[in-house]
Amino acid sequence: MKSENCILISSGNNWVEQAAKDQLEGVSRLPGVVRTVGLPDLHPGKSPVGIAVLSRGRFYPHLIGNDIGCGMSLFDTGVKLKKFRQDKWGSRLSYIRELRDIPAENPYEEECPILDLGTIGSGNHFAEFQCVDEVFDNELADRLGLPKDRVLLLIHSGSRGYGQEILKRYFRPEGLEEGSAEAHDYLAEHNRALLWAARNREVTASKLLDCVGVNAQPTKLLECSHNYLERTEEGWLHRKGSVSAKQGAVVIPGSRGSRTYLCLPSENTEIALGSLSHGAGRKWARSICKSRIDKKYDRDSIRTTEWKSRVVCHDTNLLFQEAPEAYKNVEQVIQSLKDWELIEVAAAFRPLITYKG
């Protein structure tokens, strides 16, 4: 799929459903849109997920969506892998029904007064303890400062109810005209939501480490926002389910039953509007997941993976909605990005404990 202003980056066995392609083409026809890129994890949503869109003269808040600043932060817990105890940590996490039940100091109260600070949210959001499973490029991994013998923590969350409220107030099918009062106000709130989302992941990391008995402060290794609007020299760059290739290394996770890849963008990613995939992308709608795999699992097996990792989640429906089968093959997504010469892969992490709630 390729036209003058609309391109899909995919190859080989990577599957992209027709509904997602149709949505991508629909976006390319919006007034002011100059270029539209679908990435290998492209899938349909209220607006397509896994896209980068460049417009001029106006921009579209609904292409960013309601979870402004949603992204992933990777932390070094400081815990040696040989000290990790899956049963102990899993049991402690199982006592948490919701992260909002755990009080946390909000050092950003004046700027970020939202009560949900320090929470993950539902849907595909998660926190996952991981470790290095394979290093593909030692020189590259060393250059990125990858701690190969310690427990890592990857958190995927966003701006929670904050971003939802912003979209409600500024959604216009025709977008917002550049230079208008509404555009100015949206951008100010959008930027606050971006800041809030990043701080939310930091507070969440501290909460979780405290819960499992780790006293050290987590060290942030990298930050990847994937729902946001960026002003560039060429115009307004919308990203929905895609990360910037201009800010260094990125993490691309699959599902709770697959590995996460640490990648370095190539020097030239202009064909993808300087963007990369944010993950594997959904394969199944949430409404059909349980009926398709209900007989495959019992109450215990749905809480473990082929990697012998443990899943902590108190919502049975969510367990099925987020099952590995509901997602595309992340290896095929990674291969597509490599085929298009957009990334170098430094390492892969395997899951130890996935927490949702």
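The above is record 1. Record 2 follows with the same two-line structure.
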Amino acid sequence: MNAIEVSHLVKQFGTLTALNDISFSVGEGETFGFLGPNGAGKTTTIRILTGISRPSSGTATIFGHDIENDTVAARQSMGIVSETSNVYDDLTGWQNMMFSAELYHVGRKEREKKSEELLTLFGLNERRNDLVHGFSKGMKRRLTLAMGLVNSPRLLFLDEPTSGLDVQSNLIIRDVVTDLVREGVTVFLTTHNIEEANVMCDRVAIINKGTIAAIDAPERLKKTIQSVQSIEFSFDHNAPDQLDELRRLPMANDARKAGDKFKIYTEDPSAVIDAMMAYARSHNLRVISITTLGPSLEDVFIRLTGLQRTGGAVHAID
């Protein structure tokens, strides 16, 4: 039995079609990434899968329970960690855990035991009796995740779990998710951090304008656009006009700057390397490093969603 089965799901808001006949499944114990630009339909899908919103047509089941007609049974097996913090600032960390456990109908003895384990796991137990008002953003995010795990869910919905967090909180959350997956928990992850999906997910679905553009393992998705190769290199010093000059190199489809390095996209890496070395000699530059790269998950995402890079950033095309 799959953890999630989505069949021909449609969601309309008046004349707007937010989801246009999407279907996919998530296997039990799988980490499944759900990627897409803003407005693509990610939030709408999660709201339906968690029983918050009703579909216009189609079905979705959680471990065999129809989310629309058997909502209570479907939700009993899931934990939900939304992008926006759902902690109460005027309660202590411990009180927040107890409140969340009561919502999930976890018994007193079990919720106290589980809450202590989770607060310790997330490095929050020493602050358990402090008001959450004094917690940092990272601590609040860790508490939110602990609250979503208090009922020991078989399926965990994670909406942008590490967005804007400090390095320590980011690492703690990733390590905890890795351990949960090792224990057999299914994770449904939405994220804007494409590298996070590349590292954490068994498969990813890319949704755009309410339609699934692709579903596959990250490495297999990359192989679908092998023509998008790139050369990444750095010089011993940089000048303001270098990026424009590098874009004009023979066989260079595009170039962008990433920190102290330049990245040139091409279908002919060998020709670009020769041209780049000639450029370096003519400008009295010394090449510090050079790396030939295959397509990244970000490249796949951009190709499938119709986004474009401008000045190193990614922008939507109207």
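The first strand starts at residue 4 and ends at 13.
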